[in-house]
């Protein structure tokens, strides 16, 4: 089983006992502001989401910091990557650290030429983070996600495989 370890984080496969920690993230209005669904109001929603994450075959990881689950980072469906962390973990570089580890792992182990990300254009912090990691904007589209009763737009970004990292 793949586990990624960085200076401050451990990224690992999801387990059923992650339910309550992930529900704390997925039910938090600030964390979910630019996510593709409204905040989870019922534990059963997170339970179904977690079951999908556990069964996923792509590179999707739970993020642990100091032994506690603070979110997820990875690729639920390659080549698209994403992340979400509890707001208490924002602002200290943990999202960048987690996503950097995922990107390096995916390019080292998968024959993927490009990674992509779909971000709500209002989420300036996420766009800055992805650009800092080398992603570039490829295009935008209006009304791509209906989140609750609100239509949201998308900005699409991509990161090409570095020439120095040949496909496995």
Give the tags.
single chain; alpha+beta; five-stranded antiparallel beta sheet; three-stranded antiparallel beta sheet; Aminopeptidase; 35% strand; 168 residues
Write a structural description.
With 168 residues, the protein is α+β, with helices and mostly antiparallel strands. It has one domain: Aminopeptidase, CATH 3.40.630.30. Helices cover 30% and strands 35% of the residues. It is built from five helices and eight strands. The chain has helices at 19-26, 29-32, 43-55, 94-109, 124-132, and strands at 3-5, 9-12, 60-65, 68-77, 80-85, 114-119, 136-147, 150-160. The strands form two sheets. A five-stranded antiparallel sheet has the order 1-2-3-4-5, sandwiched between helices. A three-stranded antiparallel sheet has the order 6-8-7, covered by helices on one side. Strand 7 and strand 8 (150-160) form a beta hairpin. The model has no long low-confidence stretch (mean pLDDT 95).
Rg result: 15 Å
Largest sheet: 5 strands, antiparallel
Succession of helices and strands: EEHHHEEEHEHEE
CATH superfamily: Gcn5-related N-acetyltransferase (GNAT)
Number of domains: 1
- Assign the CATH class: Alpha Beta
Helix and strand content put the structural class at alpha+beta
Total count of strands: 8
Number of helices: 5
CATH architecture: 3-Layer(aba) Sandwich
Quaternary structure of the protein: single chain
Roughly what is the average pLDDT, rounded to an integer?
Answer: 95
Q: State the end-to-end CA separation.
A: 18 Å
Instruction: Give the percentage of residues in beta strands.
Output: 25-35%
> What's the helical proportion of residues?
25-40%
The CATH topology? Aminopeptidase
Shape: globular
Physical arrangement of strands within the biggest beta sheet: 1-2-3-4-5
| Low-confidence runs | none
């Amino acid at each position: 089983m793949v586990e990624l370890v960085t200076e401050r984080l451990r990224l690992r496969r999801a387990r059923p006992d992650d339910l309550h920690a992930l529900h704390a993230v997925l039910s938090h209005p600030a964390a979910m502001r630019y996510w593709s669904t409204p905040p989870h109001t019922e534990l059963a929603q997170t339970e179904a989401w977690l079951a999908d994450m556990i069964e996923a075959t792509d590179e999707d990881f739970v993020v642990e910091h100091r032994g506690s689950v603070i979110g997820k980072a990875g690729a639920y469906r390659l080549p698209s990557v994403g992340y979400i962390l509890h707001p208490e973990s924002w602002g200290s570089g943990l999202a960048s650290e987690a996503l950097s580890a995922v990107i390096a792992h995916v390019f080292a182990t998968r024959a993927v030429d490009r990674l992509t990300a779909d971000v709500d254009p209002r989420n300036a912090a996420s766009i800055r983070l992805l650009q800092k990691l080398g992603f570039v904007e490829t295009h935008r589209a209006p009304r791509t996600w209906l989140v609750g009763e609100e239509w949201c737009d998308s900005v699409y970004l991509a990161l090409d495989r570095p020439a120095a990292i040949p496909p496995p």
